[in-house]
């Protein structure tokens, strides 16, 4: 069976790329496509030696640093690929590649990390963060046009997969389609764990608007007796640093490699998370390191951060939630967490919770879902 795997873009290794890695392991002969491929050599090992077949955006001026600015051209770019040589097309989509064109004898399975955020749920937030106010009206018009295109092309997918029930709900509201949920993989066996801590709180994230890391740094600037370490880089760096207001208890480390980041996870007191995330792999990686999580009560974490109670009532929690994305709510949640006496089994309970999303389970569930799609939509396609 000839398989194509299509990813929006390859620029850095994040949660979507961990899903992509596992898909490529399941289909080792697959041909890889991406709008652009600017992934550094040091981060390419998970691609198994592949170079993605890219679009014309790869060669446009300043694309390496500003490819997202070519968002208006991305619908045209995905329409120019020819997948006629393939039996199965698997798209890994958080932007536009769920809308690739396939033929009547091909099966298109789309793993949707989220419908396009800036065109749907988070349009208002992205418009508010635009530095040039006069650009908001034309940008709003562009995003509305992208939303119409995104919905109009929803029928190009034969079988939808979602990374959480939260995203499945978004898919239904945005496209009117049902999606089968396959939670992303958590690399539990690669994460060092410890019941001990060095007393600091940690957040680890790409610094983009919806992650709301600025709220976390602002909150800890108000709590000078509590240390916060921030790992990550992105366009919100200046806003995040400004929110910290020079507080000596807040340390911004920038981007670290996986090994360094996991070392911090193993040594922190607790992980703090303020995003309404589609699924939330990093909070579960913190759990795999044996650490409790303080998180905003929204999005995919409501499905994942619960006690591994084995049916026991009044089980010790592995996560503490705050009800709104605000500095005050984060401060209150941290204070509540610090009044809780954790038992000796707390770290093990965190790891048990994360293990429900271990990599082998993702592989089995994903392959089962693709086989179900093959049986339902393309009975002539077999391995």
UniProtKB/TrEMBL annotation:
<keyword id="KW-0808">Transferase</keyword>
<protein>
    <submittedName>
        <fullName>Putative glycosyltransferase</fullName>
    </submittedName>
</protein>
<feature type="domain" description="Glycosyl transferase family 1">
    <location>
        <begin position="196"/>
        <end position="355"/>
    </location>
</feature>
<dbReference type="InterPro" id="IPR028098">
    <property type="entry name" value="Glyco_trans_4-like_N"/>
</dbReference>
<dbReference type="Pfam" id="PF00534">
    <property type="entry name" value="Glycos_transf_1"/>
</dbReference>
<dbReference type="GO" id="GO:0016757">
    <property type="term" value="F:glycosyltransferase activity"/>
</dbReference>
<dbReference type="InterPro" id="IPR001296">
    <property type="entry name" value="Glyco_trans_1"/>
</dbReference>
<dbReference type="Pfam" id="PF13439">
    <property type="entry name" value="Glyco_transf_4"/>
</dbReference>
<dbReference type="InterPro" id="IPR050194">
    <property type="entry name" value="Glycosyltransferase_grp1"/>
</dbReference>
<feature type="domain" description="Glycosyltransferase subfamily 4-like N-terminal">
    <location>
        <begin position="14"/>
        <end position="189"/>
    </location>
</feature>
């Amino acid at each position: 069976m000839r398989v194509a795997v299509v990813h929006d873009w390859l620029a850095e290794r994040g949660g979507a790329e961990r899903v992509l890695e596992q898909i490529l392991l399941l289909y080792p002969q697959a041909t890889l496509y991406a709008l652009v491929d600017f992934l550094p050599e040091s981060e390419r090992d998970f691609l198994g030696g592949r170079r993605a077949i890219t679009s014309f955006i790869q060669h446009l001026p300043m694309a390496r640093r500003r490819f997202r600015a070519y968002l208006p051209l991305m619908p045209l770019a995905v329409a120019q690929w020819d997948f006629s040589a393939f039996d199965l097309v698997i798209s890994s989509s958080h932007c536009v590649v769920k809308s690739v064109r396939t033929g009547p004898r091909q099966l298109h399975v789309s793993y949707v990390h989220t419908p396009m955020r800036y065109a749907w749920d988070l349009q208002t937030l992205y418009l508010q963060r635009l530095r040039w106010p006069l650009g908001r009206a034309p940008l709003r018009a562009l995003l509305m046009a992208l939303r119409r295109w995104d919905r109009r092309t929803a029928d190009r997918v034969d079988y939808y997969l979602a990374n959480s029930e939260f995203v499945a709900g978004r898919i239904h509201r945005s496209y009117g389609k049902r999606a089968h949920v396959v939670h992303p993989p958590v690399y539990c066996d690669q994460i060092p764990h410890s019941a001990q801590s060095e007393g600091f709180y940690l957040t680890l994230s790409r610094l983009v608007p919806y992650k709301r890391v600025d709220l976390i740094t602002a909150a800890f600037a108000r709590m000078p007796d509590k240390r916060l370490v921030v790992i990550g880089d992105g366009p919100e760096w200046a806003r995040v640093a400004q929110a910290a207001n020079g507080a000596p208890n807040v340390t911004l480390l920038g981007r670290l490699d996986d090994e360094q980041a996991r070392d911090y996870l193993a040594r922190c007191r607790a992980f703090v998370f303020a995003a309404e995330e589609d699924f939330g792999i990093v909070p579960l990686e913190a759990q795999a390191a044996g650490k409790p999580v303080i998180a905003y009560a929204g999005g995919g974490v409501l499905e994942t951060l619960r006690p591994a109670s084995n049916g026991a009532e009044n089980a010790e929690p592995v996560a503490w939630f705050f009800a709104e994305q605000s500095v005050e709510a984060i401060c209150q949640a941290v204070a509540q967490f610090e009044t809780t006496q954790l038992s000796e089994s707390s770290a093990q309970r965190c790891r048990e919770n994360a293990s429900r999303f271990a990599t082998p389970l993702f592989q089995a569930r994903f392959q089962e879902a693709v086989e179900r799609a093959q049986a339902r939509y393309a009975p002539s396609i077999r391995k």
